[in-house]
Amino acid sequence: MHKRVLVVGGGIAGIQAALDLAEMKIEVYLIEKGPSIGGRMTQLDKTFPTNDCAMCILSPKLVEAGSHPYIKIITNAELESITGQAPNFEATIIKKPRYINEEKCTGCGICVTKCPVKIADEYNKGLSKTKCIHIPFPQAVPAIPIIDKEYCAYLKRGKCRKCEESCEMKAIDFSQKEEVIKVNAGSVILALGSEEFDATLKDEYGYKTFPNVMTSIEFERILSASGPTQGHILRPSDGKEPKSIAFIQCVGSRDMQLGNEYCSAICCMQAVKDVILIQEHLPGVETSVFYMDMRAYGKDFDKFVDRAKDYYKARFVHSRISSIEVNMDTEDLIVCYATDDGTIKKEKFGLVVLSVGLLSTGGIKETAGKLNIELNECGFSKSSTFMPISTSRAGIFTAGTFSGPKDIPETVMEASGSAACASSLLTEFPVKEIKEELPAEINIEGQPPRIGVFVCRCGINIAATVDVPRVVEYSSTLKGVVHSQEFMFSCSQDSQKVITKMIKEKNLNRVVVAACTPRTHEPLFQKTLQASGLNPYLFEFANIREQCSWVHQEAKDSATKKACDLLRMAISKVKLFSPLSKSTITINKKALVIGGGIAGMTASLDLAAQGFGVYLVEKEEELGGNFRHVRYALDGGKTEDFLNSLIDKIRSNKNIDLYTNTEIKEINGYVGNFKTRLAAGGKKPSESTVEHGVIIVATGAEEYEPTEYLYGKDDRVVTQRQLEEWLWEKESKGKGTGPLPDADPRTLKNMVMIQCVGSRDEERPYCSRVCCSKAIKNAIKLKELNPRLNIYVLYRDIRSYGVRELYYKKAREMGIIFIRYEEEAKPEAKNSKGRLNIKVKDLILDRDLLIDIDLLVLSSGIIADKKNKSLSQMLKVPLNDDGFFLEAHVKLRPVDFATDGIFVCGLAHYPKDVSEAITQAKAAAARAMTILTKDSFQTEGKVSEIRKERCSGCGLCVEICPYKAIDLDEVEKVAVINEALCKGCGACVSSCRANAIDLKGFKDEQILAALEVV
Amino acid sequence: MKNDNNWEPKIVTFLCNWCSYAGADLAGVSRLQYPPNIRVIRVPCSGRVNPFYIIKVLQNGIDGVLVSGCHPGDCHYISGNLVARRKFALLKSFLEYIGIEPGRVQFSWVSAAEGGRFVDIIEKVTSEIKKLGPSKKLSKWQKEAEYIKEILK
C-alpha cells in the first residue's frame, strides 16, 4: 500500500483535511453522505466577522478538491465499518445509487428542466421547490444531478423516464444498485459534522406552528441571494417585509431540560452577523437579540458586536425567553421576557429567528458507535486537552464539529491539524507518484496564428438561444481562423479527443472555445492543449452560456450577435498570446520555528517526526513560554508532566536544532528559500545564519499587568496567573511565594474574582477568550480545597463556549456566585482601614453590594507581544489593530499568511487555550508540510514582467504590490519582480507611471486587441 | 440619432475574475435576464484596469464603460480593488474635465454571490447610457461619419 488516508465527511473540515493531505502527495478517499461536498457552509449566506460571502470563498475549494489528482471523492456514500489498526485499516463504504452514470454525465442540467416532479429543496431548507432530479446547488461538486428515489415517478410508479429521454449522453441509469466499496488506509479522519437542533422540541417557541418563527439556518437561506426569496427578507405568512425582527439565542443549547447543557459556540456571532446583514437588506428594520451571555470570544468578534450595536442600531436584551405567543390576525409574534430587574415584558415582532444550536444526533452517533469511537457526555467525540484532535481509537482523528461545536476557522485549523496527525502515521509507506507524461511542446515561434474555434451547444443550454451554426460560420470568416466547428458538449471526453485531433491535423497553434465559464472549465481545455503538445496558455475562452445564452433567453438575435462579438474579441486577443512558462523553484526542506512555547514546540515536533529539519528559536533561556505558568488543565490533566515530556522530546530530537536565548535579527528570501540571521545572547553572544524553506511564527503573547483595582498596591490583589502559581506551590511544595506567601487557601473566607481586567475596554476592545474558563477552573479548584470559601465572580459575559459550559455549570452547582456587571459600572476595590472591600452593583437586586474579602483575583487579559511589530516588518506580514498577527483569511486560511511559506500559530495569532494552541500548531505544521514535501514548485504563469528600459525606479509598484513581490534593485535603480511571490493581480501594471510593467496573459496589447474589435 | 428608439448602446464591462465575473456567472446560472448590450472583458482584478483602456474604448466609439470589482475588503488580491478605487476617483474628474457625461463611465462592486445585484446594475447602466445617446466626444469614427454625412449633403 502507498500513503493513503480516508476522510469521512465532505464539509469544509473534510475538504480542508483532504486538500492538505493531497498537497503532501498522500492519496485521499473523501467520503460524503450527500450528493455534493461542501457541507453546511454552502448554505450560509455570509460569514462573521468579515461578512465574506460563504459560497465565494468556499467554491474554489470545492473545485480544487474535485479536480485534485490525489483526491478521490465518493459521494452519496456512508461508512459502514473500519477494521484493523493503524496504519492498516480497512474501511467498508456503501455507495447509494444516484441513478446517474457519473462518468458520462456532463452536468448540463437539461434533465432537470424536463423532470415533471417537484419536491422540497433541501438546500433551501424546504423553503422552495426543486426537481426530483436535481443538482443540489449551482456550485455543487461533482456537478452531477441526483434522483430522489422517494419521489421519482418512474422509480415509484414505473412511468415517466422523461429525464432519460432528454439526456444526450445516456447518463441516466435507473438500474443502479447499492455498491460496497473497500478501501485500505493508513489513518482515518472523521469529519462527520453535526446537525442543527430540532426547534420543534421547544414547543413554547411555536416553531412550525407560527409561520413567522424560523430557525437561524432557514434565515441564512432567506438572506442569501441564491435562496428561496433571492435575498429579500419576507415573512412566510404574508410575503411582506417585517418591521421588526427578534433573535432568540440558546435554542437547544445551555438547556438543562433538554439535556443539551453545552454552548453551541457559534450562534451569538451568527445572530450578530444577521442583524448587520438585515440592515443591508431592509434598512431601518428594528432588530433585537435576546441572549444569556454574548459570547464574542474570537478574533475581532467584540468589535463586530460593537458595530452591530452602535452603527446598525441592533438592540441586545439580556434575557432568556420563556415563551412566544401569536396575534392570530396579523401573525405577529409576542415575545414574553423578564428584564434584569424582574419586570415581565411583552413585545411584538414581525419575525422571530431561533438561533438553533449544533448537536450530535442519531446518524452521527450511530457511525461513531460502529467505529468504536467513544463519545463524551455531550455526544461529541471524546478528546483531551493535550490531544485535542485524537479520538479514543488510535489512528483515527477528528476535524470539525464532530468533536464539539466550533466556528469555521477553528474547524479549518482542526482539519489541517488532523492532516498533520494522519500523515504522521504513514511514514513507512511509499508515495503514490502521479505524474502525467506530456508530449514535448510544439515550438510555434514565427508561425502566423492558426486558430481553431470550437463552439459549444451545451445540449440546448446555449443552442436554444444562440444560433450556434451561425456563430461557427461567422468565426470561420475571421482572419487567422483555420478551423471552426460546433460540439454538442465541448467538455465531454469525446470532444477533447476531437480538439487534439484537430490540433494535429490542421497544425493549430491557438485554440478558442466558446462555451460556459472559464472559471470552471478553463483548466480542462488547457489540459487538452497540453496533452496535444501546445502550450496551455495559447488558449482563450468566450463565455456564451452564463454571460450570454442564459441571460438573454428572450432576445435570441441579440444573443447570437453578442456571441459573435465575444468570439471575435477572443480571437483577436488569442492571436497575440505567446507560450508562457512557469519557472521552477527548489525548496529547502527545513523549517524555522520562532517561539518555543507550546505552539512552537508542538509544530517543531510534528515537522521533525516526518523527517524535516527544524530550527527552533526561543528568546528565553527555557522552553515552555506562557504554559510554564499554567499549572492545571480545565479537564484536570497534569500540565507539568505534559510540558516536561514535550521539552524532553524537543531536546532529544535529532531533527531539531534548538537555539535558546536567541533573537531574530534579519529575514530575507521567499518561500522555499529563506535566509535568517540569528543572534544568541547570554554570556557568549554570537551570530549565525540559517537557511530554510518555511517559517512558523509562534511567538506567543504577554499577560496584561493591571493598573486598576489596587493591583500592586495591596498584596491581597493578585492576577489569575499568580493565584494559580500560588495554589500549585501550596499544593505541591506546601509553601507559597509571590504576593501571598503566608496565606492558606483552606482558611480563606471570602474572595472575589473580577473578569475582563484589561480586556474589552476602549484601549483593548477585544476579548482575551481564556479568562472566563481560567477563572472557573481556579474557582472550582479553590472550592474543592475549601468548600466553605465564598467565591464571587464578577463578570460581564461568561464566555465558557462549547463544552467548557459544563464547567461553568459545575461551578454554579458548587455554590460559586456569579454576579454580572456592566462596562459603565465597573466594580470598585477599596482598602478601608486595612480591610479589602469590593463594591459592585447587582443588576438583579438593583442595588450596590459591598463584599468584605481576603483575596481579590484579577482575570487580566492577554496582550500582544511588543516585539510583534519588528518581527512583522522583517517577515513583511501584517498585524491587526490589537497587535496580533493577521492571517491571510480569517475564515479559510487561519494559519497562513498572504505571503507564501509563512504560517502562524498560538497566542501570536490571538488569545487561545492550550488545546486550541496545540491544534493550531499542528495545523501550521501541516500547512508547512504541504510545501516541504515537495522538491520544487512552479510559479504562476501569468505574472508581471518589468521592461527594464522603461522603468524609472520610482518604487510605486513596490508600495502597491499586496504580496511584497517587487523589490527595487538599488544598483540598477529598476524594479525587480519575484516570480515566486507574484500572484498576477496586475495592480502594479496599471499603476506604473512609465508603462514599464506588463502582465503575461493579460498584456495591455492583448486586452486592447479585444477592445479594438468590440 | 439620439431620438431613435431602435438605437442600442454598446457597453464594455471590465469584470474582475473573482467577484464580479463570478457574480455575472451566477446571474446566468440563476437565469436572470438583462439587456444584451454589454461585452465583458475578464481581468484578474479591477486593479488591473488601466484608465487608458477606458479612454481607448470611448475613442473606439463604444457608448459606455462599466468597471466592477470585489467589494472593499473582499479583494482576492488583498487590496487591488482599493488601488482601482483610487485610480478611478482621479479618472472620474479627468473625464468630467474633458466633457464626458457623468454616467457614461461607471464603477461598481459586485460579489460572487450577487447575481441579482449584477443584473440591477447592468439594467441601470444600460438605461442611463441609452438616455445619454451615442458617445461622440472622443469617438474618431463618429466624427468621421458625421463629416462624411456633412460632405454628402
Task: Give an account of the 3D structure.
- Chain A is an alpha/beta fold.
- Chain A has 7 domains: 1-96 and 178-194 and 360-441, FAD/NAD(P)-binding domain (3-Layer(bba) Sandwich); 102-174, no CATH class; 196-356, FAD/NAD(P)-binding domain (3-Layer(bba) Sandwich), CATH 3.50.50; 451-574, Rossmann fold, CATH 3.40.50; 586-700 and 867-936, 3-Layer(bba) Sandwich (FAD/NAD(P)-binding domain); 703-863, FAD/NAD(P)-binding domain (3-Layer(bba) Sandwich), CATH 3.50.50; 939-1012, Alpha-Beta Plaits.
- Helix content of chain A is 27%, strand content 24%.
- Chain A is built from 25 helices and 52 strands.
- By secondary structure, chain B is an alpha/beta fold.
- Chain B has a single domain, classed as 3-Layer(aba) Sandwich (Rossmann fold), CATH 3.40.50.
- Chain B has a 4-stranded parallel sheet, sandwiched between helices.
- The longest helix of chain B is centred in the middle third of the chain and has 18 residues, at 80-97.
- Chain B is globular and about 55 Å long.
- The model of chain B has no long low-confidence stretch (mean pLDDT 87).
- Classes of the chains: A alpha/beta (1014), B alpha/beta (153).
- At the A-B interface, strand 4, helix 2, helix 14, helix 15 and helix 24 of A face helix 1, strand 2, helix 2, helix 3 and helix 4 of B.
